[in-house]
Write a structure and sequence with these properties.
The chain has about 160 residues and is α/β, with parallel strands linked by helices. The chain has 8 helices and 5 strands, in the order ααβααβαβαβααβ. The protein has one domain: Rossmann fold (3-Layer(aba) Sandwich), CATH 3.40.50. About 50% of the residues lie in helices and about 10% in strands.
């Protein structure tokens, strides 16, 4: 997690609550750049973690190849918040479409440039979420992906 992200506490608490329901523990590691991510990796190995869930933040998105490469070397499945994680070899991703978000941002900018006041514009929340499963990574880890999960996936990478 990027400790400077204003949502870091909310995301951490959500992850801890979800893990608790499953009888699992969480280890939260903070990183603001590539160097801090490398340090976090060492702490992750020391904690004997079984997988990685990335926080929703531009830093892990930007460093997704670094994160996934480390995780795959150590057979740690990665769950990312957008399809780009699964596309570079993460096990799966679930979250809003970044291309949809960029289109919406572009529409907002266009409206502002045409004179609309930002205070008059609605706050938009994503309504569609993408589930992407990377079967190639699952096979490399020796994991069986349930057919039910594959059936509901928006994209399966083979």
């Amino acid at each position: 997690m990027n400790p400077t992200n204003p949502n870091v506490d909310i995301e951490r608490m959500d992850a801890e609550a979800g893990a608790s329901k499953l009888g699992l523990e969480t280890v939260t590691l903070n990183a603001r750049n590539a160097s801090e991510i490398d340090t976090a990796f060492e702490r992750l190995l020391d904690a004997k973690a079984d997988g990685i869930i990335t926080a929703t933040d531009p830093i892990p998105l930007d460093r997704r190849e670094q994160i996934v490469a480390f995780a795959n070397r150590h057979k740690l499945p990665v769950v990312g918040f957008v399809r780009q994680f699964a596309a570079v070899g993460g096990l799966l991703s679930y979250g809003p479409s970044i291309s949809w978000m960029y289109r919406q941002a572009g529409n907002y900018v266009g409206q502002i440039l045409k004179g609309t006041r930002p205070a008059e514009m609605p706050v938009m929340q994503p309504t569609n979420f993408e589930l992407v499963v990377n079967l190639k990574t699952a096979k490399a880890f020796g994991l069986e992906v349930p057919d039910k999960l594959l059936a509901v996936a928006d994209e399966v990478i083979e």
